[in-house]
Amino acid sequence: MWLVWLAAVGFSTLSEAAIILQYHHVSSTTPKTTSVTPAEFRQQLQHLKDQNFKVVSLERIIQQLQRGEATVDNEVAITFDDGFANVFTTARPILKEFGYPYTMFLGPALIDRREGPVLSWEQIQTMHDEGVIIANHSSYHHRLAVPNKGESKKQWRARVKADILLAEQQLEQKLGVKRKWLAYPYGDFSAELEDLVTELGFIGIGQQSGAVCPGVSMTRIPRYPSSSQFAALQHFVPKLKTLALPVTDYSGADPVSKQNPPTLKLSVKVQDFKATQLNCFFNGQPIELTWLNAQSFTAKAKAPLKLNHNRYNCTAPSLKKPGYFYWFSQPWVFIE
């Protein structure tokens, strides 16, 4: 059965969680929706330093999750998607000043074709030699979650599997790396894609917000987008005081829905928060939440969702750590 987790699995230290940050461009001239300015980026890193956060490699956090080891709530990992050239020319010098490690997810076919303002393989090799982790973002950066129009499930599965494995092969040939991590293009995934990722022995990494700790699903590891409207410190700082909502059953949380508005169903371990204080939101507005029993609830917006990236966010204040909030973000992919 897809992604059913027992309450006893993981979440041994509910009040501790690490944070993974996600970026695309570091530039003042690229699309605002996927950009953080150099000044904003520097301000964020300075805040991490001033507040004694420990910026660690993504590999460290993933290894902790795989081993079921406790994560540390002052640990932060930095990641970039797509492999844009300004990561090399602008972000890299700033990160070097702070001595912070980072990871870059890229599509090798896009690099080969020079599609957009992307890095060159020479720049990527330099970053790799400097210790930057380079990992899989699929080769072609196509949407992977559901079949294309006119594509059968069998054809979809073959296409997606080939794309993921091709990228892994290209990264191994170019750089000698083979980590079997996949950052989903556009952050879109589905229950069937998660099953395929598991079958291939990969870890799946999303773009939905949230903290991480042992027990978090290894096919939908969350990251906090830190660009656009989320780049300002007033939005950045609260992310660092979040905990992973202890979800024990994801089977009612397939991001793919034929219904809009969609219904989210989750089972959670209610231990360090009060069920009455758990609330869910869409686009900052509260949505209806109904408890089915002591551990399970449903959430559904009143009107159809119309954003480019649709998310339900559910939060609850921690009892053990005043000022901290449990956080879960559910992305949605709509099909006809």
TrEMBL record:
NodB homology domain segment(s): 74-336
GO biological process: xylan catabolic process
Start and end residues of each Ig-like domain: 262-316
GO molecular function: hydrolase activity, acting on carbon-nitrogen (but not peptide) bonds; hydrolase activity, acting on glycosyl bonds
Pfam families linked: Polysacc_deac_1 (PF01522)
GO-annotated cellular components: extracellular region
Top-level taxon in the UniProt lineage: Bacteria
Transmembrane segments: none
Intracellular or extracellular location(s): Secreted
Keywords annotated in UniProt: Carbohydrate metabolism, Glycosidase, Hydrolase, Polysaccharide degradation, Signal, Xylan degradation
Predominant place of localization: secreted
PANTHER family, A to Z: POLY-BETA-1,6-N-ACETYL-D-GLUCOSAMINE N-DEACETYLASE (PTHR34216:SF3), PTHR34216
Record's protein name: Xylanase
Source species: Rheinheimera riviphila
